[in-house]
Design brief:
single chain, TerB-like, about 190 residues, mainly alpha
């Protein structure tokens, strides 16, 4: 993969911090990724220990599921090269606005890669779906994955297939996938 445009990376990271269009109308602030990141990655001043206060295991599972959904889409073509992985990691860290450390995301991506190798994509999609119990969260997984797919040139046909499989496990229609892809594309052209 050629190196992505840095202005595109910045746009994607900014969009990942914002609530989706359908949630912004309801007065929600921030994306599920950025809100859950606060619980997932709350660090002490020396960045070595997780703070015992403010940690919510459900929010942490939600954060991991959102990242894994996007990770599965990024791996759809079985070619998640070093450049793509570094870009993915950078965008997620940037979108979390310092609430999750780079080494935490690197460790999470390593775990996700290992789980994907062991379980296969369908089983991992099923595991993401088990962690996502609300429709708005499911739609947000699709939106985040669509935004991150745009970093590498847009949503390809194999990435779309993974998005469709995620939507099916979430019990969402194809319209939800279309909406996520369209919202991502529209947000990045502004």
């Amino acid at each position: 993969m050629p190196a992505p445009d840095s202005s595109l990376i910045g746009k994607v990271a900014r969009q990942l911090t914002q609530a989706p269009a359908y949630a912004a109308a309801e007065g929600k602030r921030g994306s599920l990724l950025s809100v859950a990141a606060g619980s997932y990655g709350w660090l002490s001043e020396d960045d070595e220990y997780t703070q015992p206060t403010g940690f919510d295991p459900d929010a942490a599972r939600l954060f991991e599921a959102v990242v894994e959904g996007a990770f599965l889409v990024a791996n759809a073509d079985n070619d998640f090269d070093a450049t793509e992985q570094a870009t993915f990691q950078h965008v997620v860290v940037s979108a979390c606005a310092g609430r999750v450390a780079e080494q935490q995301i690197a460790a999470l991506l390593a775990d996700l890669h290992e789980q994907l190798q062991e379980d296969g994509v369908q089983r991992r999609i099923e595991m993401v779906a088990k962690a996502i119990t609300r429709e708005d969260h499911a739609r947000e997984v699709l939106r985040v994955a669509s935004l991150l797919a745009h970093v590498s040139g847009g949503v390809s046909s194999v990435e779309r297939e993974v998005l469709d499989k995620l939507a099916a496990e979430f019990k969402l229609t194809d319209a939800a996938v279309e909406q996520a892809i369209e919202e991502a594309a529209h947000a990045l052209t502004e």
